[in-house]
UniProtKB/TrEMBL annotation:
Swiss-Prot/TrEMBL keywords: Cell membrane, Glycosyltransferase, Lipopolysaccharide biosynthesis, Membrane, Transferase
Record's function text: Involved in lipopolysaccharide (LPS) biosynthesis. Catalyzes the transfer of 3-deoxy-D-manno-octulosonate (Kdo) residue(s) from CMP-Kdo to lipid IV(A), the tetraacyldisaccharide-1,4'-bisphosphate precursor of lipid A.
Source taxonomy: Bacteria, Pseudomonadati, Pseudomonadota, Betaproteobacteria, Burkholderiales
Pathway(s) served: Bacterial outer membrane biogenesis; LPS core biosynthesis
The organism's place on the tree of life at top rank: Bacteria
Entry protein name: 3-deoxy-D-manno-octulosonic acid transferase
EC number(s) stated in the UniProt entry for this protein: 2.4.99.12
Organism listed in the record: Comamonas odontotermitis
GO MF annotations, alphabetized: Kdo transferase activity
Family in the record: Belongs to the glycosyltransferase group 1 family.
Length: 470
């Protein structure tokens, strides 16, 4: 064991009280964080006894948050076809991921919190459940977890793997800790060749580049149809700020209020100078010419966003209050979880959340699968390949800031020919890139078949005998 890992484990152990405090703070806004807290530290006394069944391999998938859990759902669908006897062990790190993950469980499956990355918590987790294989989704790398899985001879796969340039630079700076962790993986399935190159450079055993699992999403026909029906009932084109993050609603609000003020000023030319009018060739009718829909990324911000909008004098209608469809208001607020496909069906164009503040952008693949044109801001490093490919395919456009973004989105939504062209390009783009889920599932099933024997027979001798010796 390296000195770096010993130091890391000591820090992780000492950080336990801080983790508990953070969870308690988050539970104020999201009560889900108060559920089964002791599971995070390896205490499963609140659960019934678990019995491993040799003929039903326990496949462990770790999906930290909402986006990763949705990607895991796509992979899991294919895995269940490849391995019919599969039992799922699902771990999550966030309350939204855990809630979404409940939808994936079948009788016999198990869901617990991700173990905190100290030695005792991880060992307790592995000793309790003894998974045949572990699948980490996208970016989840925990040095302590990898080290303990190596000792327990549990193969780990990093699936749908990505590593953006910022994270790549960080991994290189902390190579003394990150390189052994990446090298400890059994296989890595990368999203893109750029991701694969960065992952290999930090030591990861990249086995294949198969694309993004999220292209294999199958939009919920009921949700999509309901959104489209509601859209037909709107007298205006609908533009959505999709999965918006901190500060982006304020950026949007600043532009919209300025455009409303200028529109009013144009009715009284003497009240404003010509230079000011010329400076704003932005969306002069952006508030009144389209119906705005804002869907915040995180549920704990729903009330905060409503307060921001009403404080600026805008009327707000919340999705949770709708009966037979949207109610008249300046802004519709999407305050529900698990209904993004409904919202994409409702929208004629979408501004991509997370891309107008330096947050890396949210997933635009779901929008493409629903046929919704996307306008991206300058920050898309979390989904660089998908962003570049969608723009090249004509399914999305990139702009420099929120002013340009609103102008472009309003233009797309207001011009039927342009909207139809981008809608068809989006659907073609999504369809063209499918297939990663099936190919990934085949690789994982083959790895499980080749290692299942020694995993099941060597498990106790590797880690638990060592523990019994102290």
């Amino acid at each position: 064991m390296g000195l770096s890992l010993i130091l890391y484990r000591c820090v992780a152990r000492l950080a336990r009280p801080l983790v508990r405090r953070k969870l308690a703070r988050r539970a104020v806004a999201e009560p889900g964080y108060a559920e089964a807290v002791e599971q995070r530290f390896g205490d499963y006394s609140d659960m019934p006894a678990y019995q491993a069944l040799p003929d039903m391999p326990l496949v462990w998938i770790h999906a930290v948050s909402l986006g990763e859990t949705r990607a895991a759902a796509i992979l899991l669908r294919e895995l269940r076809m490849q391995i019919p006897s599969l039992r799922l062990l699902l771990t999550n790190g966030t309350a939204t991921g855990r809630e979404e993950g409940r939808k994936l469980l079948l009788p016999g499956d198990i869901q617990v919190w991700q173990p905190w990355d100290d030695k005792a918590s991880v060992r307790s987790f592995l000793r309790r459940f003894r998974p045949a294989i572990g699948i980490l989704m996208e970016t989840e790398m925990w040095p302590g977890l990898v080290a303990e899985c190596q000792k327990a001879r549990v193969p780990l796969v990093l699936a749908n793997a990505r590593l953006n340039e910022k994270s790549w630079r960080g991994a290189k700076r902390l190579a003394w800790l990150s390189r052994p962790a990446y090298q400890g993986l059994s296989a890595v399935i990368a999203q893109s060749y750029a991701d694969a190159a960065r992952l290999r450079e930090v030591g990861a055993p990249v086995q294949a580049v198969l694309g993004n699992l999220k292209f294999d999403v199958q939009p919920d026909a009921e949700q999509l149809g309901k959104g489209q029906a509601w859209r037909r009932g709107s007298t205006k084109p609908v533009v959505m700020l999709a999965s918006s993050r901190e500060r982006e609603e304020q950026l949007w609000l600043d532009v919209v209020l300025q455009s409303r003020a200028l529109a009013s000023a144009q009715q009284a030319p003497d009240a404003v100078d010509g230079e000011a009018l010329h400076a704003s060739e932005a969306p002069s009718q952006s508030l009144c010419s389209v119906q705005w829909l804002i869907v915040p990324r995180h549920p704990q911000r729903f009330d905060e966003v409503e307060t921001l909008l009403t404080g600026a004098g805008l009327g707000v209608s919340r999705r949770s209050q709708w009966q037979d469809g949207p109610e008249a208001a300046d802004v519709w607020l999407g305050d529900s979880m698990g209904e993004m496909q409904l919202y994409y069906g409702l929208a004629d164009a979408a501004l991509l959340g997370g891309s107008f503040a330096p947050l890396g952008g949210q997933n635009l693949i779901e929008a493409a699968a629903c046929g919704c044109p996307v306008v991206m801001g300058p920050h898309t490093f979390n989904f660089a390949q998908a962003a570049a490919s969608s723009a090249e395919a004509g399914a999305a456009v990139r702009v420099d800031d929120m002013v340009q973004g609103i102008a472009q989105a309003v233009l797309i939504a207001s011009q039927p020919a342009l909207h139809s062209k981008m809608q068809q390009a989006a659907l073609h783009f999504a369809h063209h890139h499918r297939g990663a889920a099936n190919a990934s599932a085949q690789m994982i099933a083959a790895l499980l078949e080749s290692t299942e024997g020694f995993v099941n027979t060597g498990f106790e001798a590797s880690i638990f005998d060592e523990e019994s010796r102290g």
